[in-house]
Amino acid sequence: MTRSQYALLAALVLIGVVSAFSGSYNPYFLDIAVSCGINITLAVSLNLINGYTGQFSLGHAGFMGVGAYSAAVLTTSFGAALLPLLGGQPLLLFAVALIVGGLMAALAGLIVGVPSLRLKGDYLAIVTLGFGEIIRVVLQNIDAVGGPRGLIGIPGYTTLFWAYGLAAIAVYVVWAMVNSSYGRGFLAVADDEIAAEATGINTTRYKITAFLVGAFFAGLAGGMYAHFKQYIAPQGFGFDRSIEIVVMVILGGMGNTGGVILAAVLLTVLGEWLRQFGDLRMILYSLLIIVLMILRPQGLFTWSLPRRAG
Amino acid sequence: MTELLQQLINGLALGAIYALIALGYTMVYGVLRFINFAHSDVFMVGAFSGYFLARLVPEGSVMGAILVLLGAMAICAALGMLIEKLAYRPLRGRSTLTALITAIGVSLLLQNLGQRIFGANPRSFPALFPQHQFHMGGLVISSGQIMVFVVALLLLFALRHIVLKTRIGTAMRALSFNPTAASLVGVNNDLVISFTFALGSALAAAGGILYATNYPSIDPLMGTLPGLKAFVAAVLGGIGNIAGAAVGGLVLGLVETGVVALGGSTYRDAVAFAVLILILLLRPNGLLGRSQAEKV
Description:
Chain A is mainly α. Chain A is 71% helix and 1% strand. Chain A has a two-stranded antiparallel ribbon.
């Protein structure tokens, strides 16, 4: 085993120990902690697309929505039929539902990724935004999953352990991918696509891989979110949510996994803390985005000079 | 046949509004090469300015309606210049994605300030001029739709004159062609960019009022969807291309009305994005755009 694999194992053990006592924590803080875990997964997976590969995607919430709905339909509508097949283990059912949700989201990522690859920069951003909105409208029009009313009665399987276990795996996978000799291709695509192509890197393949893996983890996080909130509605996976995840990535610093994790936690906690200001919350939030973009466009937690321009 | 003509009129009226908003996106893209996400909320502010200004003029008079329109356009022009100066000017020369995120921040700020100041509940927009339905051989045209056509056409010709025949319009075109060269020959880039924002925002305000007279329910989040669709219209026509924005707006209005008429009204908001994706895949430079070779 390599050092990073030991780190993943240690993190999982630590999460297991910490969550073993979750019964004695303040439920309000526990709630925020689980949200943080889910947001870390979302931000880190988007960071693979936006940060490391430099493909600006504004549709991450759409992938999350596909995962959330797929997993939730599996545990609610098909739960009773599937449970006996899985030995009556609800957690096994949850795991299967999460993975199916992730795979469905990855499929959506493939569908979005392949045609979008011809586009760059803000065009790509707009197309991914469009795909995200299309996913939302389609979800709204499927009556079997509640249409605009949303899906209720999802079992609350998500615990601290599941949320952070997934986050640890997402961080590990993205980190291991990017820091392998294969994964340098992602950075090359982000740095200079034409130069990367000239040195024999299959840029198309790297971009599709980034979209696939990013969407897969977004789908997993969506399933986790569905079984945490126990209620999902199409509006929850719209443009606003995508922006929230993008802001986490930008604030943390594009292509800076540690920073993105910190930013995800910081923004989730900040969002909760700002609730006391009522409707001033979003005003402060949007002002924060503007001021940060003007003062620290490289991200709060990136101290060295920006590694790349553009 | 009558049905088809009727839908054509409805589609063109909707499309003319999209065209007015799309012009703002396309002009800003022309000079700054970035998508001004906050444009859709300037459109919202335009509608609200009209709502409050309408209280100051006698109801149902044409002169009053014109004053309201001009007043709202002036307010939004000032707002557009203010946004540019405070939020976008410090970012000049940075990556477009930084500007894009800032624009999204400005958009969120305007929406939430709107909700704080105007309240989140929809308000009904007053009738600015005498409401009348004209019947012509089975076709129904409302006075609101006629107003849309007249105002949109007048503004388009005014814009065409400004861009093609005036000094500042020439400067705008020079800037969008090459900013460095433009400043070398004495164009004041800051001034021209400021003017572009004022012009685009004024058109958005006109679009907002026309939209509100035809769909008389306004709320602080009303700008998002028309704004996104107008952006699609700008891309459809070829972003940065002024005639393209007008054509794109009309085409998009027709397509959307057509889909609704065919019974797909729950999908009307997805149509614009489907059109966008198709056009970017088939003709990424838009209907009237020219392709540019990439220099390495």
